[in-house]
Amino acid sequence: MENQVIVEHIFLLVIVTLFSVLQNAFFAVKLEREGKSGCATSFDRVSCAVRNCMDAYPTFLAVMWCAGLCVSQAPAAFAGVLYLIVRHKYFVGYMGQTSQSTPGYVFGKRPILFLILMCMVGILNYLMAYFLGRCYKAQLKTVTSLTASLLLIP
Amino acid sequence: MENQVIVEHIFLLVIVTLFSVLQNAFFAVKLEREGKSGCATSFDRVSCAVRNCMDAYPTFLAVMWCAGLCVSQAPAAFAGVLYLIVRHKYFVGYMGQTSQSTPGYVFGKRPILFLILMCMVGILNYLMAYFLGRCYKAQLKTVTSLTASLLLIP
Amino acid sequence: MENQVIVEHIFLLVIVTLFSVLQNAFFAVKLEREGKSGCATSFDRVSCAVRNCMDAYPTFLAVMWCAGLCVSQAPAAFAGVLYLIVRHKYFVGYMGQTSQSTPGYVFGKRPILFLILMCMVGILNYLMAYFLGRCYKAQLKTVTSLTASLLLIP
To answer: Which tens digit of pLDDT belongs to each residue from C121-132?
Structure first.
């Protein structure tokens, strides 16, 4: 029963994490297949794309889980899904023939920034509740849920 | 006391994480020693093996913790241990002289797949408990514990 | 309210994680800027430094969170901050002109070792509490807090 209570607060985060893991597996399979095809230039490009995605992966996971635990899981999971979509676009764009139009090393700045801000606001709220005795948890959840939808603006 | 309750649900996961960290440290020390020996080809091979292991590491951690939190820690930790053994074999195999027999980029598919399935089943069970009011948590724990032993089949 | 209880036990860890994420973002921006400048040797050096930092990042996160959850968050967060400082020094040292004086692949050994020991002691304490019924949680918190200050010795 204990566990059930914990799962209630994190199940959306777990679902997004699961999707990100499946995406990682997709990347890895893509890379392995490319490695067997023997084409050096396209292997290099895929390898570079996978590596850039993997470099950013722990950062993404850490910030999504922190934001989800500190404030509210729904907007954090939503930003996580957006990040995964951006990452997929980045990966496909990197593999494309028009390598000059590829994005750089950093991608998914907006979802990550949103998650970092969520973390900061959550921590500030906790400190305020601790020191001043005022807690804006409920308002915070509403505001972050509303703000998360702003991420959809291209 | 609060903390003690949390630790009860995760201590096996923490132990496996600790072993994986020690293994990472072993890999890093191996790579550093190789770097000092000055042999370029063997350094390249170790560096490549370490990098492949490290690329898959956050994925492994994420999926093991999610599976452990959502369903039950014992089978998740067991699959984690198996993954660490597979990883060690992969690393040693990669460093070996017979580089043509090295495994590819993806390794430890079976434990990871098992953990992903555990996550999915756990989430499904949570959603069913939420929407339909039926909870198969106890059965789930037994089934996953039994299934985990199937991973031992080579 | 549930969530507030959880946040109480992890807010220091979240803050350190947030700082590490910001540092990662700083590294990534540095690398991207270097990539645009077109100087191959300095790009290689920054890229190598970023990659070494990123290889060790999941290990650091995992061990810090485990230590923080199992024993006490304050010393774990303190060691985390020290690790981030060491990492910054490592990164700057790697980029410097005097590339022969750069540190190797492994860095921040002391904070990581301290966190691993904290994890081990925490798990041992849990097992002792479980099997022998003796719990030294309070003493453990004091001792680790005191030991953490020893990390400051250069």
So the answer is: 888 888 888 888
Can you read off the two tokens belonging to residue C63? 């061990």
- Cα–Cα distance, B150 to B146 (Å, whole number): 7
Nearest 5°: phi and psi at C153?
-60, 125
Contact (CB, 8 A) for B74 and B10: no
Quick one: how far is CA C35 from the chain centroid?
A: 27
Does the beta carbon of A29 lie under 8 angstroms from any beta carbon of chain B? yes
Beta-carbon contacts of A147 under 8 Å, excluding residues fewer than 6 positions away, are: A75, A114
For residues B59 and B106, is the Cβ–Cβ distance under 8 A? no
Q: DSSP labels for B140-153?
A: HHHHHHHHHHHTT-
- Per DSSP, C99 falls in state G
Q: What are the tens digits of pLDDT across the range A81-120?
A: 999 998 998 888 877 655 544 566 778 888 999 999 999 9
Residue among C69, C106, C137 whose CB faces B28 most closely: C106
Record the tokens describing residue C1, joined without a space: 């309210």
DSSP secondary structure code for residue C121 in this structure? H
What is the H or E stretch that residue A72 is in? none
**Cβ separation B123–A54 shorter than 8 A:** no
**Cα-based distances in Å from C75 to A139, C58, C117:** 32, 19, 12
Contacts with C6 from chain A: Cβ below 8 Å: 9, 69
Percent of chain C with pLDDT over 70: 90
Between CA C152 and CA C82 the distance in angstroms is 8
Are B123 and A11 a contacting pair at CB < 8 A? yes
Euclidean distance between CA atoms A115 and C137, whole angstroms: 34
Residues ≥6 apart with Cβ < 8 Å to C81: C16, C19
CA distance C13 to B148: 32
Say which residue the tokens 């505001």 belong to: A143
Here the ipTM equals: 0.83
Q: From CA B38, how far away is CA B28, in angstroms rounded?
A: 16
User: Which residue in chain C is spatially nearest to A62 when comparing CA positions?
Assistant: C17
Q: Is there a contact between A17 and B120 if contact means CB atoms under 8 Å apart?
A: no
Burial class (CB in 10 A: 0-12, 13-18, 19+), C67: buried
Start-to-end Cα distance in chain C:
42
Closest-approach residue (CA) in chain A for C36: A104
Structure tokens at A35: 């490695």
Is the minimum CB–CB distance between B144 and chain C shorter than 8 Å? no
Q: Which two tokens stand for residue C35?
A: 């990539």
